[in-house]
Fold this protein.
Amino acid sequence: MNQPLLKIENLEKHFPSAKGSRPTVKAVTGVNFELNEGQTFSLVGESGSGKSTTAMMILRLLDPTGGAIWFNGENIAGFRGKQLKSYRKAIQAVFQDPFSSLSPRMRVGDAVGEPLVVNGFGSKSDVKDRVREALEQVGLSAEAMDRYPHEFSGGQRQRIALARALALKPKIIVLDEPVSALDVSIRAQIMNLMKDLQEKTGVAYLLIAHGLDTVRYMSHWVGVMYLGELVEVAPSEELFTRPLHPYTQALLSAALPSHPRGNRQEIVLNGELPSPLDIPSGCPFHTRCFRQRVDACYQQKPLLREIAVQHVVSCHLAEYGR
Ligand code: SF4
């Protein structure tokens, strides 16, 4: 089997708490997954589940406290100098708010061209040609180059942010809530554009999104995070049609049914998400679980195990469904 483009192995990020070295905030613990060329792996879960911290480590904006991130078979922790620079070129990001990556004072042409200039792409005219090409890839004309971001609609600004991310022809783009700030009518256009770009360029996406419709539409694989750990990972359709972890079932039940006459009963979880400073013992989900819990739920931490082909779940009772 081919080597994955990105392999996340036992990834961990524990922060010392504000009051000293103990207890620690366990933001991410023991996360494993792979991302392949031309595919989308999505991370879902409530705010504070560790999705963004995982993405920050992959972007090398945060250093892990354990585990490894392998890019084309090499551990990125060892990247320095030229190797680090080429990794930073290969992995780009698009965020919810395009203004976070687009300076309001910079013309679109300069904003899209900035990563090229920083990376010594070539002459001024090479940069201009590549900017024009990137804008065309996202459906904007070269005229956009001389205008400012505020002159564009939200959807067009997100196209510009995508063009900026694409300019360096990356292997991976981290998409952090890329459509959640957009009008519903525009979301489908941007999702279609991202899928189309993936088909044409082979770029891989790591998608972080709350909107499960977006996740289902975009993803090949989905990982569900709870309190910093993956509790279920499966191919997208398998996960959406046969969720096995009670937490995943609750998340999906809260989303709109896929058919207007769909009859999905919402599962309301007990209580709030526990603090990552004080993760419950046994199964971390036992304080909110709606299943008939057994002694093992309180005493023994369930490990991720394969329940169906390529479908892993960390629940002692996963085989019994709901
Ligand atoms: Fe619920 Fe027990 Fe499964 Fe945890 S192990 S999710 S508490 S049934």
Notes: Residues 246, 283, 285-286, 289, 291, 293, 297, 302, 315-317 surround iron/sulfur cluster (CB under 6 Å). Residues 184-201 form the longest helix (18 residues). The chain has a mean pLDDT of 92.
